[in-house]
Specification:
The complex is a heterodimer of chains A (about 325) and B (about 290). Helix content of chain A is about 35%, strand content about 30%. Chain A contains 11 helices and 14 strands. Chain A is elongated and about 75 Å long. The two termini of chain A are about 35 Å apart. Chain B has about 290 residues and is mainly alpha-helical. Classes of the chains: A alpha/beta (about 325), B mainly alpha (about 290). The interface between A and B is medium-sized, with 30 and 25 residues.
């Protein structure tokens, strides 16, 4: 379990973290989401004891990171933003060194190396110099290092950066698997990334927590059914004027023409008004085939606007 | 500590650095050996060691320039500092690894006096040679710790190397300075107060407590001035005395000339410990910034 209480970090006058508190329960995967520079890495560095906070406290399984650093660090596996790799070592030598650092007994070292290499899927490059590995492999060697010594808590700073789509899915599956007996805090600046694996999301911006919720709840709030993007086959002017005439539609504008004989239109309706069926009826009676219709994609910015907007409304 | 020590040792021999260091040292020691022992036929080996002590200025930075700075630049210090090992383990592991590489050179060079005695049937004072080796080793300890401290201050190896060489050269050049500084008691008082001001500045920088720093500073300054008025003769030539007692090469030469004393050993060991402590402080302090 990770407990973070009123964490504040000041760099001179710059306030990097402003009174951050949250907990990650046993066996939970929590996603730490925020744009670059929001304070994700700083928080993670403080949790793992690499940095010290200006104020506040971090407890790992009830152990204070500042007061009993060695005890706390035994329980944490950390993959920093830039994997801390010694490029002049082979993968095996590096994991071996990590075993020594984490006091893995000599007798079980061989098994540990085998196990983490297999889990992180770096077994096939074990004898190669880290210097010669691709970014994806390096990232996974970093992940292997974090799993050495079987720590109960894993802190993963952007674990899928630099991986190709197939590897991203693999790492996601790995993290899901690990979550059965690990407490995991992982960060990302891509919503879809954490949505897939996390039980809960903590959204942070400018060093403050702006929202804590399940991925479903967070995206539900910002599902924008009133904004549609469509591609319709038919005459441009008729379609635009026709769409605008539909009850509830506030504006219809042309985005571009992609396919010969069709138009791409952006449609905006009043708040919480669903005009999709009315649009369909209009198109079908006039025989304008709908080639595509989608609601605006939810992204991190929308959530930010949503949650920060709500906050301001409350004040 | 063991893990860091072994890793560091391996690094020296995975890179050319360890070989360059050992090769350079041995080549130059060999040159002096041929020059002094074989050509000029000096029996005592300490001539060779003495000649090599200025060499240490340029080769120790090879050993220490990357020792701390590289970890920071590559962010590998993150795995060290977030592992369940004590910061002292990191500092000492690295220090002893560098010291071992240094000692390898000394061990190999032992062949030279051995050859003198056995092959050339030369006679040498064993005590002088042993004293020379001990002095050389102690100087190595002190310089490695100073180099390590400088390396911990920067992310750039090159800057670490250049600054280390500059500091060593400065230490060597300022050796005789104590004999020419003013012996006036007023100058001594002024120097003491300036030193106090510098120390207080450093204290303030590390504890960030203006009031506390000011109180300590004022108390110390007043005490110094009071002592000055009670016992002004004590300040005559004090600057010179302090400089002399701090001079590294003076003690080093002293040990070479055969007067082995424990105070010299203690001096070098405390100098080493002091800079290791500073290195430790630099690492610890960084997480608070």
């Amino acid at each position: 379990m990770i407990e973070v209480n009123h964490l504040t970090k000041r760099y001179g006058d710059h306030l990097a973290l402003d009174d951050i508190s949250f907990t990650v329960g046993d066996g939970e995967i929590v996603g730490f989401l925020g744009p670059n520079g929001a304070g994700k890495s700083t928080t993670m560095n403080i949790i793992t004891g690499y940095l010290s906070s200006t104020e506040g406290q971090v407890l790992i399984d009830g152990i204070d990171v500042l007061e009993q650093p060695l005890e706390a660090k035994k329980r944490i596996g950390y993959l920093p933003e830039i994997p801390p790799l010694y490029t002049d070592m082979t993968v095996e030598e590096y994991i071996d060194f990590a075993c020594d650092l984490k006091h893995v007994p000599a007798a079980s070292k061989k098994d540990t190396i085998e196990q983490v290499c297999k889990l992180a899927r770096v077994a096939d490059v074990r004898k190669r110099l880290i210097r010669n590995l691709s970014k994806g492999y390096r990232q996974r060697v970093g992940l292997a290092q974090a799993m050495v010594g079987d720590p109960g808590t894993l802190i993963l700073d952007e674990p899928t950066v630099g991986l190709d789509p197939k590897q991203i899915i693999e790492v996601r599956d790995l993290i899901k698997n690990l979550s059965k007996n690990h407490t995991i805090l992982l960060s990302s600046h891509i919503l879809q990334e954490v949505q897939a694996v996390c039980d809960r999301l903590i959204i942070i911006n400018h060093g403050r927590i702006v929202a804590v919720d399940t991925p479903e709840n967070l995206s539900k709030n910002v599902l924008q059914i009133n904004k549609l993007e469509m591609r319709i086959r038919g005459p441009k002017n008729e379609i635009l004027t026709g769409l605008e005439a539909i009850d509830g539609v506030e504006s219809a504008e042309l985005i571009r023409v992609r396919e010969e004989g069709s138009v791409d239109v952006r449609l905006e309706a009043g708040e919480n008004v669903d005009v999709r069926e009315a649009v369909f009826d209009f198109c079908s009676t006039n025989n304008y085939p709908i080639l595509m219709m989608k609601t605006n994609e939810i992204n991190l910015e929308d959530i930010f606007l949503q949650v920060t907007g709500e906050r301001e409304a409350k004040r | 500590m063991k893990a860091v020590f072994l890793k560091e040792l391996k690094t020296y021999f995975k890179n050319p650095l360890g070989y360059v260091f050992i090769g350079m040292m041995l080549a130059i020691m060999g040159f002096y050996y041929v020059f002094y022992t074989i050509y000029y036929q000096y029996a005592d080996y300490y001539h060779v060691l003495n000649a090599c002590s200025s060499l240490i200025l340029f080769v120790v930075p090879v050993l220490t320039m990357r020792i701390m700075s590289e970890e920071r630049k590559n962010k590998t210090d993150q795995i060290l500092l977030t592992s369940p090992i004590h910061t002292w383990g990191i500092v000492l592991g690295k220090f002893f690894a560098a010291l071992l590489v240094f000692s390898i050179v000394l061990a190999v060079s032992l062949l030279q006096p051995l050859v003198t005695v056995t092959v050339f049937k030369g006679e040498m004072t064993a005590g002088m040679t042993a004293g020379g080796y001990i002095a050389f080793f102690l100087l190595g300890c002190a310089f490695i710790s100073i180099g390590m401290f400088i390396s911990s201050l920067t992310e750039n190896q090159l800057i670490a190397a250049v600054v280390t060489i500059a500091v060593f050269t400065f230490l060597m050049l300022t050796e005789g300075v104590y004999s020419i500084v003013s012996t006036s008691r007023y100058v001594s008082l002024a120097v003491l107060l300036v030193v106090l001001a510098i120390v207080m500045f450093l204290v303030y920088h590390s504890i960030h407590e203006a009031v506390l720093t000011a109180i300590i500073g004022i108390v110390c300054a007043v005490a110094t001035v009071v002592v000055f008025f009670i016992h002004p003769q004590g300040f005559d030539g004090l600057t010179g005395k302090i400089l002399k007692s701090l001079s590294i090469f003076e003690r080093y030469a002293d040990m070479f000339s055969g007067s082995f004393s424990f105070s010299h050993v203690i001096f070098f060991l405390s100098l080493t410990a002091f800079f290791l402590f500073l290195t430790y402080q630099v690492i610890e302090r960084r997480r608070w910034n």
